[in-house]
Amino acid sequence: MAASIMTNEAEASTVPVGVRLRDSFFSGGLFWLLVLPAFVFFLVFFVVPTASLFALAFNKSTAGVISLSSVITFDNFVRIFTRSIYYESILRSVGIAAAVSLICLVFGYPLAYVIAKTMSPGRNALLMILVLSSMQLDMVIRLYGLMVLLGDNGLINGTLIKMGFISAPLPLMYNTFGVVVGLVQITLPFMVLSLIGIIKSINPSLEEAARSLGASRAKAFSSIVLPLSMPGILAGTLLVFALAISSYVVPALMGGWKVMVMPIHIFQQVAETGRWQFGAAIAVVLFVTSLMAIAVYQRVAMRTTGGRS
Question: Residues 205, 209, 212, 216: is their CA dihedral positive or negative?
Fold first, then answer.
């Protein structure tokens, strides 16, 4: 017994002090202290404000009043679903977000595929710089650049009129088309970045094996690469959808306050009329609508991919 104790002590003495401290830190559960700052920040600056906003949605709508009341009412939600201007904005928000997600996927997948398959470090770095450079500019600056391009007197309409192709400016802004273009321009890099890592992780030998068995390049892509990249497609689409459905700046600038989506209604109720309760109710509906749409999409995608995630 004494010999075994002496042996254990001898073995322990040969273990570096740093390793012993690390093992005691993780075995004692003290590593949870590492996530404590982030947890506190998340709790104070996300959970508490969001919960307060949700609670405010069940109070009577009173202009200029922000304090919570113990009286619970569903009048704000009844108003949302009984007035066409509000429930139509729900459908419009979901439709625009879905269209933006699809367009970003169609445009972003080929670019992500090229970046992932490019072996030259120089070309790969150049393509990545092109993708990331668009994210370095402020959103408002990028949208004003689009306004210069798509406006009635912008570069596109001005060029087409001078060349005689059209006699009047095309309606490229202050409508749903302008909002979709603006959202695609803002969210496309997020789709590309979500896909690059997934496509890179696909073993090239799988595609080569399919080609060696007689499959064409298109068949190998559709049967091997595309299904295996479905997790990236799912992640990128959900990210783009969440960004698009909650965007306020893009519909305000590119839509000219004419495309009434839910974030616009929230701003009007809170900032213009001071009805925080009704604005909070619209925010709750927006949150629940976004979750429901994402849940439906994820279930459909999971069935399509055979359960891969």
Answer: negative
- The burial of 151, by beta-carbon neighbours within 10 Å (0-12 exposed, 13-18 middle, 19 or more buried), is given as middle
Phi-psi region of 74 (alpha: psi -120 to 50; beta: other; left: phi over 0): alpha
Of 245, 260, 247, the closest CA to residue 293 belongs to 245
Contacts of 227 (CB under 8 A, 6+ apart): 305, 308
Q: Which residues contact 7 (CB under 8 A, 6 or more apart)?
A: none
DSSP structural state of residue 309? -
Q: How many CB atoms lie within 10 A of CB 228?
A: 18
pTM for the full predicted model: 0.83
Give the tokens for residue 101. Answer: 């997600």
Q: How far apart are the C-alpha atoms of 186 and 167, rounded to whole Å?
A: 31
Distance between CA atoms of residues 7 and 13, nearest Å? 10
Distance between CA atoms of 255 and 177, rounded to whole angstroms? Answer: 8
Q: How many angstroms separate the CA atoms of 153 and 50, rounded?
A: 43
Task: State pLDDT tens for residues 219-234.
Answer: 888 888 888 888 889 8
- Classify burial at 296, counting beta carbons within 10 Å of its beta carbon; exposed 0-12, middle 13-18, buried 19 or more: exposed
Cα 123 to Cα 39: distance, rounded to the nearest angstrom:
40
What is the rounded distance in angstroms from the CA atom of residue 228 to the CA atom of residue 252?
38
Q: Count Cβ atoms within 10 A of the Cβ of residue 62 and give its class: 0-12 exposed, 13-18 middle, 19 or more buried.
A: middle
pLDDT tens string 134-155: 888 888 889 999 999 998 888 9
Q: The tokens 């979901």 sit on which residue?
A: 94
- Among residues 171, 144, 139, 143, which one has the least CA distance to residue 156? 171
